[in-house]
Amino acid sequence: MKLSIDLKVNSRGEWLEAVMNDFPSFIQDHANCERKASAMAMHLVAKYPDRLAIIPELIATAVEELEHFQQVYAFMEKMKIPLKQEMGEDPYIKQLLMHCRTGRDERFLDRLLIASVVECRGAERFKLIWQALEEGELKKFYHHLWASEAKHGHIFVKMALAYFPQEVVYNRLEFWMQKEAEAIQSLPIHAALH
Q1: Residue 1 above 60 pLDDT?
Q2: Which domains does the chain carry?
């Protein structure tokens, strides 16, 4: 049983260059992304309390994402980088959500699969950052995050498979991987996770 599909396009070298040239802006955005990921998992618990098979995993994912936020914030404190005053909209996520269906079950499936592709992109980008950083605690941290994000990509597909037939899940996942590729290529490059 395949739990994810490979990304359709790789992140451009210009993205990594932008991040490494303005790491303070990147880490501020990264902190916000971890907070949003935790909130998204808890939103699914609140929105779909009848999906008992996946609630424990959603809660565990929310806690893990919040722990990542705590860890990112600890690095920010050491680097004397403040949190952003506001958590603005993420244009990448916004672009993906535009394609989300409206029926209760359809939207449930789409939200799980969007979470999967976002985590897969995060894993790819954390790996690039890990490889680019100099030896030290920050490099070790991004190596750990790379593995964690990759795992989350699989978890959300597994959750979808608990409620929908494989063919439906994989066909829709293919759709989302294509939409993700379009989104990542169309947005301007800046020192942010997406």
Answers
A1: no
A2: 13-186 (1.20.1260.10)
